[in-house]
Every structure is written in structure tokens, then in C-alpha cells.
């Protein structure tokens, strides 16, 4: 059985390789390895999240945080699409965290930063304008609900959480939960079974 990607310290044997993938008109390269999420290609849900966000949010000098950033594809794509923004990835998996830093260099982006931390317990040094996440569904409902609570606790007033989740993996119940936590939720788009949900911080 393969090792769970949401472990903090993967022990599986290394198998470094490089992949290339496209999203939102970008072509990006990534170093990946065993013990990380979606090592063969950029996850489809992550692509839907990036493209929905880019379609809706104009270019600006934002503070953007990704919770559960893995080896960096969403963080790096958003940094490319929003060159005036500062994009920070928060990741518990040490192997993915190290790969993400290397992948920012590989893709020549300088407006990224990474924190090795549990996204559910993360505390921002500066309240972000946006939090985005493709949460680790296999980690269980309690873990991904804590991602939502963490976003709500850290966003600036008026800041937004953007979350992608498949309908079959609990999108309707997540929509309800985000409404409970934030007092509002919007279904931004649905595409091939993926839902993009957005909530706005009220305080």
C-alpha cells in the first residue's frame, strides 16, 4: 500500500522525477517524488481551482495562502498569474515542502514562500486576502474541516476562502459546513464533478 501523502515525514524510498503540465495558459515543470500527492501530474481539481480563481480575480498585489500546497503546483501557478502578489504555501509533508522550494526555483518565480506547518493549525504573520485549498480528502472530514476553520481565523475582513472538492467526496456537506463557519458560501462553478466553493470573511 502506498504511503499517505499527508504524513509529516514520509519514509518511502525516493524516486525523484520531473514532470511538465499546463494550467491557465501556463506550462510548468515540477520535481516530484514518492510520498507526495499527485506525483505523476498536476491534480485535476487543482487545475480547476487555479482556472476558476484566475477567471474571477483580477491581477493585484494580494497576499495569497495555499493550505496543503504539496510540491507547489497551485502556489507556483498563482505566483505566475499574479506576479505582484505574494503567494505562500503551507504544507505538513517535509518531502513535499522541500520539493516546492526547488520547484519555485525551477519555474523562476520569486514571489513565493513556504511554511512547514500543519495547515489546520497554521497562523498567518499577515492576514491574507485569499486562502485557497485543494484539501487532503483522504485525511478525513475532521482534518479538512479544520482547514476551513484555519482559513476563517486568519483571513483579513473581506478576505476569501476558495476550496475545490468533488461532489462524490462530500461537496454538498462541505458547502453546508463553510456556510456554518463563515456565515456565507457561494458555489462559484461546477466542472466535471468538481465544485469550487467560496466563502468571505465577515470579520
From TrEMBL:
Protein's GO biological process: methylation
Residue ranges of domain Methyltransferase small in the record: 28-198
Keyword set, alphabetical order: Methyltransferase, Transferase
GO MF: S-adenosylmethionine-dependent methyltransferase activity
Entries under InterPro entries matching the protein: RsmC/RlmG, SAM-dependent_MTases_sf, Small_mtfrase_dom
Pfam families: MTS
Protein name listed in UniProt: Methyltransferase small domain protein
Source species: Abiotrophia defectiva ATCC 49176
Lineage of source species: Bacteria, Bacillati, Bacillota, Bacilli, Lactobacillales
Amino acid at each position: 500500500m502506498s504511503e499517505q501523502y499527508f504524513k509529516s515525514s514520509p519514509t518511502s524510498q525516493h524516486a525523484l522525477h520531473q514532470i511538465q503540465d499546463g494550467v491557465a495558459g501556463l506550462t510548468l515543470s515540477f520535481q516530484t517524488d514518492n510520498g507526495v500527492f499527485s506525483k505523476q501530474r498536476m491534480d485535476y481539481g487543482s487545475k480547476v481551482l487555479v482556472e476558476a480563481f484566475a477567471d474571477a480575480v483580477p491581477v493585484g498585489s494580494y497576499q495569497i495562502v495555499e493550505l496543503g500546497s504539496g510540491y507547489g503546483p497551485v502556489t507556483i501557478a498563482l505566483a505566475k498569474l499574479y506576479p505582484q502578489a505574494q503567494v505562500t504555501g503551507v504544507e505538513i509533508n517535509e518531502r513535499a515542502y522541500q520539493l516546492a522550494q526547488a520547484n519555485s526555483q525551477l519555474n523562476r518565480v520569486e514571489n513565493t514562500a513556504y511554511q512547514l506547518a500543519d495547515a489546520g493549525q497554521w497562523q498567518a504573520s499577515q492576514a491574507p486576502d485569499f486562502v485557497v485549498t485543494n484539501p487532503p480528502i483522504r485525511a478525513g472530514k475532521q482534518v479538512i474541516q479544520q482547514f476551513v476553520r484555519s482559513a476563517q481565523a486568519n483571513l483579513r475582513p473581506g478576505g476569501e476562502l476558495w476550496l475545490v472538492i468533488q461532489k462524490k467526496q462530500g461537496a454538498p456537506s462541505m458547502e453546508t459546513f463553510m456556510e456554518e463557519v463563515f456565515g456565507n458560501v457561494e458555489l462559484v462553478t461546477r466542472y466535471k464533478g468538481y465544485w469550487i466553493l467560496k466563502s468571505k470573511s465577515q470579520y
